[in-house]
Amino acid sequence: MPAPDLANAELTLTGRITTASNATFMGSIGDAVVVYKPMAGEQPLWDFPNGALAHRELAAYLVSQALGWNVVPHTWLRDGPLGEGMVQLWQEQDPAQNAVDLVIADDVPQTDWKHVLEGRDEEGRIVALVHEDSQALRRMAVFDVVINNADRKGNHVLAMGDGHRYGVDHGLTFHSDHKLRTVLWGWMGAALSAEELDGVDRVNQGLHGQLGRDLAHLLSAEEISALGARCTRLRLARRFPAPSGGMPAVPWPLF
User: Fold this and answer.
1) Domain containing 106: what range?
2) What's the structural domain count of the chain?
3) Which of 40, 115, 142, 178 is the most buried (most CB within 10 A)?
4) Cα gap 58→205, rounded to integer Å
5) pTM
6) pLDDT tens-digit map of 115-136
């Protein structure tokens, strides 16, 4: 049976994801299970343009492709039952794995995990936000710096059974002002690897070619210029950044 035409074949809604802040639906295109976020269902934000979050989701996918790390599942724009929106292939994560977690502070693993911060839970216990120390998650952390991700929550990291980690929900990205809010601070100050720096270079170079032309339909010239500047700063620093500015360094809620 031939694969469905994902851009044009009928998109059928099968359910709604009620935990999302914007209208988000499960759907199917033939045998393909997808997530559909119509632009008409986007809630207005004070610091991002109205009706453009879907464009940022696609822009994040294009940058992920330029990096070469497959951080973002296949994403595209198309018409649907509720108008034009973002569509993304659904990824079924492994329920037995958590790439980001909250644990009792005394139970933080000593190896293969990074400690981010501590706080108290609703019962007054001291808990710690931790994430795994893996190449896949390092790549996602670099990706978030490049796209200026303002909302990397723990449940926006999908742990796949084969060890791959997908990042989803990238509407709050690419702002020209510093907006980085993420749970992935475990490598703060650590040196970037040659492979990670090569990925940043591919994005920066791509802005002068097809990537730049594609992003010009999705982002403002100022936002694309800021993207290039972030790549340049990251390349020169050769290290994961630390939080800066007066805004919170992590999103809320964390998950």
Assistant:
1) 100-130
2) 2
3) 142
4) 19
5) 0.95
6) 999 999 888 899 999 999 999 9
